[in-house]
Design a protein that fits this description.
By secondary structure, the protein is mainly beta. The strands form 3 sheets. An 8-stranded mixed beta sheet has the order 5-1-2-9-8-11-12-13, with no helix packed on it. Strands 10-17-16-15-14 form a 5-stranded mixed beta sheet, with no helix packed on it. The longest helix has 25 residues. The C terminus is likely disordered.
């Protein structure tokens, strides 16, 4: 083999790792954008992904913050942190966390209820800020379960998934927060229904409804 051909072959071999790296990077799932939307009844944080990946969630105190961890996702959002103002969300920031995790942190001014649901291009976290409006006059409404009595389980958040909703509930007997599905027991109550904003439980004394909006806020 001539010297010129050897040099050409060596150049091709040197290019192969770079091409492979570029192809792997382009095919990786990426977190590309985070936006904040506010309204009269709720404020939401939208996370945009190149392909849907379910996040792991944590609500942490001191200060209160909701953490979203997207495993095996490349962090490409380059406008962080984002100060949004308002009376609930203080800041939204993110980074590439250890182990190939794209992390988004929503720092709050107080403890708040939240709902996570899938969107066509990622996920959205909604923080309800007001109770739902009453139905128009003349429209019949179904009877509602009794309001949550003092000492009843407390809803921390709800995740709506394709395979069913998961409610994160604080058990007043153990003071621990866990994820529950329909049919699970919370103390002496059984979860009958998980909606977008409420959880219905069957107790020895009757049915009760725990709504996200009913949870007290802390200054």
């Amino acid at each position: 083999m001539s010297r010129g051909r050897r040099r050409a072959l060596l150049g091709v071999l040197l290019l192969i790792p770079g091409v492979a790296w570029a192809q792997a990077r382009s095919s990786a799932v990426a977190l590309t954008d985070v936006t904040i939307e506010g309204g009269a009844q709720a404020v939401s944080v939208k996370v945009k992904l190149t392909r849907s990946v379910k996040p792991k969630t944590m609500l942490l105190p001191d200060p209160w913050r909701l953490v979203l961890d997207f495993p095996n996702v490349e962090f490409r959002w380059n406008r962080t942190p984002a100060s949004v103002g308002g009376d609930l969300i203080r800041e939204v920031r993110g980074s590439q966390y250890e182990g190939g995790v794209a992390r988004v942190v929503v720092e709050l001014t107080r403890e708040a209820a939240w709902v996570l649901d899938r969107t066509p291009d990622g996920f959205r976290v909604t923080f309800p800020q007001a109770a739902a409006q009453p139905p128009p006059p003349g429209r019949a409404t179904p009877p509602r379960p009794a309001a949550r009595p003092k000492g009843a389980p407390e809803v921390q958040g709800i995740i709506v998934r394709d395979e069913g909703a998961v409610a994160y509930i604080r058990d007043p007997q153990t003071n621990q927060v866990k994820g529950y599905r329909v049919g699970d027991k919370v103390g002496d109550a059984v979860i009958e229904k998980i909606g977008e904003r409420e959880v219905v439980l069957t107790t020895p004394t009757g049915r009760i409804e725990v709504r996200l909006e009913e949870r007290p806020t802390r200054p």
